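Record format v2
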Amino acid sequence: MSQKISLTRYLVEQQRIDGHIPPELRLLLEVVARACKSISQAVNKGALGGENSILGSAGSENVQGEVQKKLDIIANEVLIEANEWGGHLAAMASEEMDNIYLVPNRYPQGEYLLLFDPLDGSSNIDVNVSIGTIFSVLKKLEGHAAVEESDFLQAGNQQVAAGYCVYGPQTTLVLTVGDGVAMFTLDREQGSFVLTEENITIPADTQEFAINMSNMRHWDEPVKRYIDECLQGTDGPRGKNFNMRWIASMVADVHRILTRGGVFLYPWDKREPEKAGKLRLMYEANPMSWLIEQAGGAATNGRQRIMDIQPAKLHERVSVMLGSKNEVERVSAYHSKL
Ligand code: AHM
Ligand code: MG
């Protein structure tokens, strides 16, 4: 790319030239990107952050009963503080908050709802492995003056923007507003995100899968069959060898898939049968599914397109299989044969 295109310019063009996004949504996305820059700074400091290290546990649990890390809480606060006063939002919801967060009365109210996992891949924070922020944007339901949790309970196909920021060797923001997927790399000297990849497409076929193999004995038959056939390589029915990667940060695994293809699975398993899965539908699976679909891939819970699932609650969990289209279709077909 001869001339550098900043995220700001990309969004202005999405608004002005293509009419894809209204000005308030552009502002919202700029604010989220700004918050991600601050989170990236905090992540970079690690053990050097503040008087005490910002690594380690915060000594509390979130609504899902998971131990919160200090950086989970810092990232959550950064996103709230950046977004609450701009006038573009009505409310926010986060993995780290039990209930929705209403924009305080002292600030103007907007039409949008922002959902996020402030720091995904928390188990990787202390070990200096890539982590990220995932976000999804919905519109408030019309005719509702006061926002309630029920306003958030919209299927993923209602999203108006979705993305993530991965804090890895580079800090990269990946975004869709329904017009393909674009990637922006943080230029630390300039302090801005620069467009580095547009119209991302995922190859329909792949020879790489991502799954936590230690859960194998708990999977149900379709997932076992799919992975078992991959593992048989050239000797098995697939007739080709597969490679495996598992970073344990969905952002980093999805980023690899958007970059070179692959399939990611965090399926339902028998450990806690009443749980639909580990990952959360509204602020993990839905935004990632939309990015993957916008890049030509597919995303399913095995039986249904993830983005068509009607959520029943804010922190709902879901079984996730996403990535290269032909692989996702294959694993779906194995589920329908049950
Ligand atoms: P988190 O939101 O608490 O960080 O959990 C989500 C993460 C995903 O990023 C990742 O794919 C998965 O949990 C890893 O789980 P496991 O530790 O079971 O491999
Ligand atoms: Mg998380």
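Residues 124 and 250 are 11 Å apart (CA to CA).
The mean pLDDT is 94.
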